[in-house]
Each structure stands twice: as structure tokens, then as C-alpha cells.
Amino acid sequence: xxxxxxxxxxxxxxxxxxxxxxxxxxxxxxxxxxxxxxxxxxxxxxxxxxxxxxxxxxxxxxxxxxxxxxxxxxxxxxxxxxxxxxxxxxxxxxxxxxxxxxxxxxxxxxxxxxxxxxxxxxxxxxxxxxxxxxxxxxxxxxxxxxxxxxxxxxxxxxxxxxxxxxxxxxxxxxxxxxxxxxxxxxxxxxxxxxxxxxxxxxxxxxxxxx
Length: 210
Description:
By secondary structure, this protein is an alpha/beta fold. It has seven helices and seven strands, in the order ααβαβαββαβαββα. A seven-stranded mixed β-sheet has the order 3-2-1-4-5-7-6, with helices on both faces. Helix 5 (125-135) runs parallel beside helix 6.
């Protein structure tokens, strides 16, 4: 990241542990991913962008709902473990892995899903805001943007999960369509087109347009 936690911070974490946040083993993480995936308003997506993909646990799940996933991380060790996970699960061909940070120019303009999961608070507020203001207008019409972040304080992080969520929610062109919140995590779902509900956009009888 160009402003926020340095890349060396993450390199050190992966040097100490193959899975620093126990993403592949904790029930908390499995539950959070299940909630996140359940909140997606569309059954399928063409091309998802996942910054800060770590070892690829969520990446693998996204690849089952998307024609293709582009996942990026600043730590080469994380990408190597994501590569191994995807190969073991037979999903490697559905995913592009890149060594780059969230705040650089996003690697494509045809994304219809952006999964900002546990990565926003590594950036300074101004950089996060500027990145979203620059990149969101380049997304596909009616793209989905998901923000999922830990709510407890972490002294190392420039931002809290709630602060990240507020910045994303305030991004011009985003419309909130739903979410989930408890003491631990806040997950919010936005659309670049409208705030129309899932029932309304799929023509369920009785659903009122927003």
C-alpha cells in the first residue's frame, strides 16, 4: 500500500505463519464468509475483484459464483498459498492472481463484483476515499460492492472497520441494498445502479420498487 501499513508488515506476518488470521480453520471466519456470500444480490457474476485476497479462502468461494475472479495481494507468500489452494480445489483456471495493492489502478474495468473484505482499514482514510472515488465510476453498471470488516479495535490499523464502512458508504454513486452487523463484524452491500431489493430486481410478485 502506498499510504497505510507498509508491505513489509504483511511479509512479516506470513513469514511467521502460513495463515496468520486462521482464515481456513476458524469457525468465525467460515461463518463470516457464509454470511458474506449469502448477501450477494445476484446468483452469478461475470468478473469479481478481490483485493487483499490473502491465502485464497474467500477467493475459492467466489470462483464458484463468478465466471472469473481477479484477486490481488501485496504479499507474495499469500499469493503462493492462494495458488496452491486453488489448484488443490480445481479452481485455478477461474482465478487471476496478481501482486499489487488495493490503492493502485484496479486491473480491469469490467468488474461487476468488488469484494472489499478485511482490507480497507490497512489504508489511510484519504487514500481509501480517493481510490474508491477514482475506481467506482469505472465499474460496470449495476455492479455489486461488498464491504466486510472486523469491528474491534486493532492498534496497528490506520482505520477501524466502522470507519472503513462509512467511507465506502459515502462514495458517490453507491446505493446501499442490505447488510449484516453484530459486535464483531459489519458487512454492507452496495450497488452502482440503484437501491432496488433482490426481490424487486428479480420480479418476485408483491415486491415494491425502491
